[in-house]
């Protein structure tokens, strides 16, 4: 059983060897040698080989005759083949000879084809490289021409389009390496130009602002003729739109102008053709730098830098010079710089997209407005010249109108101007105080003589004098007042005009202007003019004639107050009966001044009387003389003479047909009564002098003579208007004392020491039905007389 399986296995292996490639029989033979029957296998292999050999031999024997025939035919063919070979060799030799030219031509053609292919390849490569070189050359030209924004555009196109197409060439690599450097160079150069621009507009902001203010002033003056002259001015918005169109029409949105200067030179071809403020500035550095940084993706960096630098410049612009208040030019330069700064910012706001926004500009303006108001308040407080304050006000109004034309709110400036109005009023009051004092110092306090109608009309045109009686008089004649009256009245109107000038262009209503003028005029009357009149009245060496003239002057000025009311009404067009309208206090002012002058007259007159009384030299122990041998004391004669001449001056005092006015002669009457009372009181004081220990009868007789002279003066009526012997009442007490001393002590105890028949000099003689009881001075003299009598008895 095992031998059968072995024989079958060997048979399988032999078939596998016959049908398998010899390279793959290794594993098969290994399986045979691994077994124990390899000898038997070899026997079968040998038998198989012999079997195949017999088959091969049978096959060869079967085909041998055919093989022999084939060999024979082959030998025949060999001869023919040799002939054919010889012919082929000959043909080949001939072909080689004939093909050498063709081969040369083919080589040349091949070379030409290669060259043609190389040329085509070169052309293709050059077609890719030439745009790179051309663009790089253009880039260099733009860099040399400082056209940095187009250069940056070219650089972007070169980097992202041309260089990738050109391939990996060395010059391309070099260009690629230089691109970041060029970009940095453009960025730095653009920033340098921006810094130069910022520095330039910082230096020239004064010129920019001056031009903008001139344009606003010209616009305001030509508003009425704009319709007749369409191109009188180019509107601010129109210029901004034109600038925006110019900006968008350039390459890639860049401005056409490539100048780096921030300020352009503009010549005024026509006097009325004032260029716009923006026309003076070349904003291309800003636009260029903005576009460059936008392309570089650094727009935020640029915006922050620009705003930061402009804020710093704003702080510098808003810092006024320490001596700005000294001249108007200092204020003008300050305002020009501020206007120039905000004109630039406003133009940037409207011609760029987002570089500055409305909130940023408003924030800057709020900061500027607070600093401007603070600076003006500080510096204007040093100003004491009303003309400078008025010019400053006009400059501030023009400054405010200019910025308002650019859309900035300026209400705070006008509020500050209203505050400055109070300061302006105080400065005006100080100037007019000096003016009034100068007028008073130069006044001669005498009526104005006029010799011709022309002179008369000249004065009446300056002062509203309405006196029909005076007009009827022939020339030459005198105006009742002195030069002070027309000059003061003209100055009052000048003051009103000065107040009106300040109120112009402040956007105030007529009622507000009227109220402001009236309040300021009241201050001028009640404070300044009143103080000046008091100064004139109270100053030293003012005579009674001057004081009388002051009364006359104030009387006429008081009468002119309603003309001032009409004058204010005419210039403000506000009727005086308007509700809450302020009234002028001139009447009260001039009344107070007149009362002060009257009081000064009384005081001066009494002082002059005291000077005469100081010359009194009574000998209180003189011996008694007969009444016929006594004469009036010299000092009293001089005093009476002085009083007569003085009271004659008072006859020039005018009547005043107004309410509470001084009646004609009332001042003279009061002064005369006051003088008489003062004389009586002074003589009484002489008797009451503590140093007078004794009084002789002779001294009393001398005093009685002097008293008679005083009574004679009073009885003569030095001033008209007294009823009866009213003026004698001033000497009543002194007369009673004199009578009592002359009669002796018994007169003091009589219930009626004086009767109509007792003495021709008794004061009661003027009134036969009245008696005068002893007063306190009489009682004192009674005591004095008792003491005198007591001393006399002791001496006896």
Automatic annotation (TrEMBL):
Kindly indicate where the leader peptide sits in this chain.
none
Q: One cellular component GO annotation, for this chain's record?
A: exocyst
The protein's matches in Pfam families, at most eight in alphabetical order, are given as: EXOC6_Sec15_N, Sec15_C
Keywords carried by this UniProt record: Exocytosis, Transport
Domain Exocyst complex subunit EXOC6/Sec15 C-terminal intervals = 412-737
Q: What are the start and end residues of every segment in region (Disordered)?
A: 237-269
One of the protein's GO biological processes: Golgi to plasma membrane transport
Q: Could you tell me which residue ranges the Exocyst complex component EXOC6/Sec15 N-terminal domain spans? A: 44-213
Query: Which PANTHER family does the record associate with it?
Result: EXOCYST COMPLEX COMPONENT 6B, SEC15
The family assignment reads: Belongs to the SEC15 family.
Role according to the record: Component of the exocyst complex involved in the docking of exocytic vesicles with fusion sites on the plasma membrane.
Record protein name field: Exocyst complex component
Native organism is Xiphophorus maculatus
């Amino acid at each position: 059983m095992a031998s059968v399986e072995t024989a079958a296995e060997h048979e399988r292996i032999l078939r596998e060897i016959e049908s398998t490639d010899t390279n793959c029989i290794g594993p098969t033979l290994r399986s045979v040698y691994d077994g124990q029957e390899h000898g038997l296998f070899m026997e079968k292999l040998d038998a198989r080989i012999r079997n195949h050999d017999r088959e091969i031999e049978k096959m060869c024997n079967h085909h041998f005759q055919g093989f022999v025939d084939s060999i024979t035919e082959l030998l025949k063919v060999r001869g023919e083949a040799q002939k054919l070979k010889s012919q082929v060799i000959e043909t080949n030799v001939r072909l080689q000879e004939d093909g050498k030219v063709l081969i040369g031509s083919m080589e040349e053609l091949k070379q030409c084809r290669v060259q043609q292919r190389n040329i085509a390849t070169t052309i293709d490569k050059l077609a890719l490289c030439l745009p790179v070189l051309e663009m790089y050359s253009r880039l260099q030209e733009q860099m040399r021409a400082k056209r940095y924004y187009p250069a940056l555009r070219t650089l972007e196109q070169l980097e992202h389009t041309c260089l990738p197409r050109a391939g990996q060439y060395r010059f391309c690599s070099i260009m690629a390496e230089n691109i970041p450097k060029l970009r940095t160079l453009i960025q730095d150069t653009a920033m340098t130009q921006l810094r130069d621009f910022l520095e330039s507009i910082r230096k020239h902001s004064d010129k920019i602002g001056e031009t903008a203010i001139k344009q606003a002033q010209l616009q305001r003056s030509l508003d009425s003729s704009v319709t007749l002259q369409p191109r009188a001015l180019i509107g601010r918005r129109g210029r901004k739109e034109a600038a925006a169109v110019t900006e968008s029409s350039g390459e890639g949105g860049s401005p056409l102008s490539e100048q780096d200067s921030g300020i352009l030179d503009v010549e005024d071809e026509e006097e009325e053709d004032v260029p716009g403020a923006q026309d003076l500035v070349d904003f291309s550095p800003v636009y260029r730098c903005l576009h460059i940084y936008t392309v570089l993706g650094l727009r935020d960096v640029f915006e922050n830098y620009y705003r930061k630098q402009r804020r710093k410049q704003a702080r510098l612009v808003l810092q006024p010079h320490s001596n700005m208040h000294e001249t108007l030019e200092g204020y003008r330069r300050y305002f020009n710089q501020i206007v120039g700064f905000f004109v630039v910012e406003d133009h940037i706001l409207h011609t760029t997209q987002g570089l500055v926004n409305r909130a940023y500009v408003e924030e800057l303006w709020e900061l500027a407005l607070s600093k401007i108001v603070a600076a003006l308040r500080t510096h204007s407080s040093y100003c004491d010249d009303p003309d400078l304050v008025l010019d400053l006000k006009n400059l501030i109004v023009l400054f405010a109108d200019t910025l308002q034309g650019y859309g900035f709110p300026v209400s705070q400036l006008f509020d500050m101007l209203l505050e400055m109005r109070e300061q302006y009023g105080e400065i005006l009051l100080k100037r007019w105080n000096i003016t009034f004092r100068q007028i008073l110092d130069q006044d001669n306090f005498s009526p104005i003589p006029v010799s011709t109608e022309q002179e008369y009309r000249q004065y009446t045109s300056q002062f509203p004098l309405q006196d029909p009686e005076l007009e009827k008089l022939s020339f030459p004649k005198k105006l009742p007042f002195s030069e002070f009256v027309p000059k003061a009245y003209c100055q009052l109107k000048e003051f009103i005009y000065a107040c009106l000038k300040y109120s112009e262009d402040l956007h105030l209503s007529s009622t507000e202007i009227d109220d402001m003028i009236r309040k300021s005029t009241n201050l001028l009357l009640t404070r300044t003019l009143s103080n000046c009149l008091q100064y004139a009245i109270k100053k030293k060496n003012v005579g009674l004639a001057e004081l009388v003239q002051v009364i006359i002057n104030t009387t006429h000025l008081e009468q002119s107050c309603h003309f001032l009311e009409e004058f204010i009404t005419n210039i403000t067009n506000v009727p005086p009966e308007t509700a809450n309208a302020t009234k002028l206090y001139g009447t009260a002012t001039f009344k107070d001044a007149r009362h002060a002058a009257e009081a000064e007259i009384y005081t001066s007159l009494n002082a002059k009387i005291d000077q005469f009384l100081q010359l009194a030299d009574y000998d209180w122990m003189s011996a008694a003389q007969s009444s016929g041998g006594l004469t009036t004391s010299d000092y009293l004669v001089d005093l009476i003479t002085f009083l007569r001449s003085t009271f004659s001056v008072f006859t020039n005092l005018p009547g005043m047909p107004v309410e509470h006015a001084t009646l004609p002669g009332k001042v003279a009457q009061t002064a005369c009564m006051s003088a008489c009372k003062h004389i009586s009181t002074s003589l009484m004081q002489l008797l009451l002098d503590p140093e007078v220990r004794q009084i002789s009868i002779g001294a009393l007789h001398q005093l009685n003579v002097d008293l008679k002279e005083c009574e004679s003066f009073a009885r003569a009526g030095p001033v008209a208007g007294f009823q009866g012997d009213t003026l004698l009442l001033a000497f009543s007490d002194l007369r009673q004392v004199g009578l009592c001393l002359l009669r002796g002590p018994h007169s003091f105890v009589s219930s009626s020491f004086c009767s109509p028949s007792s003495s021709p000099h008794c004061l009661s003689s003027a009134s036969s039905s009245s008696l005068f009881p002893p007063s306190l001075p009489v009682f004192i003299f009674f005591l004095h007389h008792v003491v005198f009598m007591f001393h006399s008895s002791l001496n006896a």
